[in-house]
Amino acid sequence: MHQRLLESYSVASDRFDEMLAADGRLRPHWRTLIDQLENLSPEMLRRRANEVRDAIASDGVTYNVYADPKGANRPWELDLLPHLVSSEEWDFLERAVAQRARLMNGLLSDIYGPQSLIAEGLLPPALVFGQHGYLMPCHGWQPPGGVHLHAYAIDLARSADGTWWVVSDRTQGPSGTGYALQNRQIMARAMPEALRDMHVESPHRYFHTLRAMLTRLAPSEGEVPLIVLLTPGPYNETYSEHAFLAHTLGFPLVEGVDLTVRGEQVFLKTLNGLRRVHAILRRMDDDYCDPLELRADSALGVPGLTQAARLGNVVIANSLGSGVLESTALHGFLPAINERLFGEPLMLPSVASWWCGEKPALDYTLAHLDDLVIVPAFSSMRMQPVFGHALTGTARRRLIESLQLQPHAYAAQEWVRLSQAPVMSRSGDYRLMNRTISLRVFVVADGEGGYQVMPGGLTRVAPRQRRDVVSMQQGGTSKDVWVLREAEQWAPSAVEVAQGVNNVTVIKGTVDVSSHSGENLFWMGRYSERVKNLARLLRTTLEYTLDGQSESRGMLGSVSWICSQLGVQMPKSEPRPTITGLQQSLQAAVIDPSVPVSVATQLRQLANAAYQVREHLSLDNWHALTKMPAMVQERIHTPAAAQHVLGNVIDACSGLAGHALDDMTRDAGWQFLMVGRHIERMANMAALFDNFLRLPPQRQTAALSWLLEAASSIVTYRVRYRRTPEWLPVLHLLVFDVSNPHGMAYQFRMLQQYISDIAQQLGLLSMSIPTHLSSQLEAMNLNEFAHDHPNMEQANARLVQLMRDAVSGGYMLSDDLSRHYFTPLTAPVSQGV
What we know:
Residues 514-822 form the DUF403 domain. The protein is an alpha+beta fold.
């Protein structure tokens, strides 16, 4: 039984195997899963593994590894096989981890309060005051509800005898909860039958409790609490998770520049002005949070945040200074501290640890170096674990010298040989391989003195070459954690649901769109339109290079010149470029990311803007966006292939426009998105028409069809006029016709409408620019543009001036928006019903 799938799986004699018992038999809680996998063909397993990878790509799940050759947004990696934990084992872990969370909170209360543990000799002063993690400005404050540790994570490893040990504590802004939930959502699509049949417990209660706890503890004083998620920004390694969590929890995702402190209260800079912030779920390290009192060189934090928290005007989760507990040197002192604080033994032991700052511990470390792992005593030290048995010669002597010169900076831990679990082969063949793992478990405070443990968590898998170091930064992968329970799954109670919608102000409340998000939505609108305009220009021009008609070839010099004036790099050595040279330049303008005006470059800019407002986008919208950069990553060898790629890009951009119209709430952020689209369309059309008007009259006539296609109006022209393109009807359609969504008059009208709505809702902005452009257009007489009209030259001059005013007006309007709304310094806004 199970021979087919397990025949290539090997068990290490010195490690605990999560799937197989010592006699080689399946552990009982693994049988259902392996039975189901045995019934799947190799092709079906490969298909499901591909579904996992595709889901990660379409959901945009990334983990940024610094200096990674795969790029800044490295795809998250998830194994098809979950990590299974039996109900009996989880019952113990749940109690033990909750106990440890309570201990950590109590320890923080003492360290930043009476410091009785130090006075009684249970905690060495050097371990507290001698590290960067201890923040003196935070001493003496009591957070609301006495909760310092709102969210907590713990890294566990299992030794060869099956015992779970604590490897490290994560107490600042523990990462991984978002990845754990995304793993579960992806696995629910890839393995739905197994999830159902094995009664896997849902992790959703964790997030419900987190939201409810922050709402309860927030010093709202009768207002609807505004809770934000503070991120260091898109270059942080786990930014993808930050955006996902903000979207899941319904919290605005903000950076330090989005917040300001006024009158010792924290405010969010929104498009509507300043909104008071009552709670901050931070994913930023302690000392970066406040350049005024903590780290002066931090450009990420919020000046004055410490004082606002000290006065109880804002809840910060976790409390500033909580990073002091991430010191591995504390582990050896925790059992006695738990006995002292709570009168009970510590259920979940730490890996045997020795702080080398004590002479007996240093002597033991030097005498037993081969059996130990040397780790930094404090989290601020950037040092990888060093395995004593792996050191010889000069490296060993240097480590011993370092231990003797700075013993307080190091801790020694027992070398625990991590347990192993099965992973699916990545080569696509039908076999399982063993990899070492560690388990991260997440805990959340309930705001009433207790802690709840997320059922499951995040299993990290070591790369093949590093069996005893599990690190995502070094190429590790992940597993979903399945806690098997026969009990009924959790769902919000009627009371909990009622509490969630009991406040009329909540029901009628508006979306708080930060100024930073508003700016990125604006540029998302501009870049999406810019990509579409450029793709259509390149595709139209490529079509004319493939047309064998003499009149098409005769106008290539004209359209090549217009393209070059719009920033596309065209052949420079020939006044009349060859067909081949022109095609090569156009193909390069599709895929070359080093060229400023290329589809690849503009798609990258679009992705960057969208990445920073992910929480405002629907899942369908986000899926469409994540697929777009890949459209131009492969080499293009023929004009026909380039046309196909450009067609796909145009279709995708049209889909984005549809998502904006159908999926997005009509809030201020949406209005700025639409304004960005219309500014870009106006400026592009004006620049296109301006350069077209510089051509000699006979060349203009030859290029009218090209102009209509580049302006996406050829079909409208043919349906309306049913004749070959002529100057006056083309001019009317592209400039004067208010019903043509690609024409100038339409852009002026829509900008007036949206800017009027923005000014009415937010104030400040003047409509002078689009109104002035509309007035110029209305003063023109279409008849004067006829070739035989005596005022034709003056009319053309006024038209050229209008086009140039539209281009400069677009820049001016963009600057006005930035000045008035994207960096506001206005007074607070009331939050009445």
